[in-house]
């Protein structure tokens, strides 16, 4: 019996998914999948730092190669968000969206906007068969919004009139 990661995906499950996608199972691929399962929406640099805890000799190029091959095989999803390097996640079985805090950069998953993929129906398809709709909600998380609200209510001492 294989021990599960904190989020419940066993290494054997990742291995089976890799094999069914036509990929060879390697310790580097398993380590990258484990890193992204534990830290969704991570950048390649964040994945590298996490993977180096178990594979200290892994190179930057190896991590990029693994990310590319796993994304190409459909085992990872690459997120291309404004003002951010590419991010990756293992949640690929649905067409979910993302909410991004413009203050701290926190990213949260948001369920499909209308029910089932592609979640949105465009007014014009230009002859394309739409398969995925990618929506990014941007705003301030509660932690970032709280200081702004307090600052807005606190008078600036420079505004006080000397009498």
Automatic annotation (TrEMBL):
Subcellular localization, as worded in the UniProt entry: Cytoplasm
Zinc listed as a keyword: yes
Coiled coil: none
Origin: domain of life: Bacteria
Entry-linked Gene3D superfamilies: 3.30.1490.190, Winged helix-like DNA-binding domain superfamily/Winged helix DNA-binding domain (1.10.10.10)
UniProt KW keywords: Cytoplasm, DNA-binding, Iron, Metal-binding, Repressor, Transcription, Transcription regulation, Zinc
Cited PANTHER family: TRANSCRIPTIONAL REGULATOR FURA, ZINC UPTAKE REGULATION PROTEIN
Stated family: Belongs to the Fur family.
Protein name: Fur family transcriptional regulator
Organism: Citricoccus nitrophenolicus
């Amino acid at each position: 019996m294989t021990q599960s990661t904190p989020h419940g995906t066993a290494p054997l499950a990742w291995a089976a998914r890799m094999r069914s996608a036509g990929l060879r199972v390697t310790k580097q691929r398993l380590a990258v999948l484990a890193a992204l399962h534990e830290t969704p929406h991570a950048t390649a640099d964040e994945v590298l730092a996490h993977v180096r805890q178990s594979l200290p000799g892994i190179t930057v190029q190896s991590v990029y190669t693994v990310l590319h091959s796993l994304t190409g095989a459909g085992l990872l999803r690459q997120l291309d968000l404004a003002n951010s390097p590419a991010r990756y996640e293992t949640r690929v079985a649905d067409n979910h969206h993302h909410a991004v805090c413009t203050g701290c950069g926190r990213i949260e998953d948001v369920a499909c906007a209308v029910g089932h993929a592609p979640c949105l129906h465009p007014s014009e398809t230009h002859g394309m068969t739409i398969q995925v709709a990618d929506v990014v909600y941007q705003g301030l998380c509660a932690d970032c919004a709280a200081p702004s609200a307090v600052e807005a209510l606190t008078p600036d001492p420079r505004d006080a009139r000397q009498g």
